[in-house]
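Recall that a protein's primary structure is simply its ordered list of amino acids. Everything else, from secondary elements to tertiary packing, is in principle encoded there. The following example makes that idea concrete.
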Amino acid sequence: MKLEGRRVIVTGGSRGIGYRISELFLAEGAQVLAVSRDPVKLAEAQEQLPGLATLVADVAVASDVERIAAWAESEWGAVDVLMNNAGILHGDEPGLTVGPDEFFTSTLQVNVVGVYLCTKRLLPLLLKSDDPRIVNTGSMSGIIDAGLRDSYGVSKAALHALTIATANELRGKVPVNALSPGWVKTDMAPTGPGDPRNSAQAALSILMRPRDVTGKLFRGSRIRSWSTQFTS
């Protein structure tokens, strides 16, 4: 029971990687609140995972995030782990310069602004924990190299930068790291070859790291570079 008594919020916790994180963390003894803007998926997750708490909220909306914080303060008094996992992908995007503006703006709003809002609004509760942790779900699509493309890649690159900046600001207080789960089979990527259960195990392994490990990008249990060397 590696997470016995720990209070964990998992955004995007009703399906895919978030669901498997919620499942594993419950099995490891944590109290888990799964957050999603999809009430149907949340109800299904709650039925399948006894003990799971759920809350319908959109992380891209500040007032919704404030409701998450209010719930956690009322029910728990503090938060030990924030898993910023919620994210969107618009499938086969036609391209940054030809696709609808909404593809770009909504992707950035959820994948980056949502993480910013959750981190900022929940920080006071995290600072009440004796071992607070933040893990953001990044992506190999956000690695800075010559192959960077589309709204999703830009959003994950921005999320990686946000992870580093937040880790620097909170150094000595809250470790902040990112997990690149790889291409796994989820509702968002139905043809993915990977198993989201492995991503959940990787998230757990990050929480077991020493507190001075912060501002890092993990692929599985290994730390990798935020960028690759390239020339124009």
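The chain has a mean pLDDT of 93. The longest strand covers residues 31-36.
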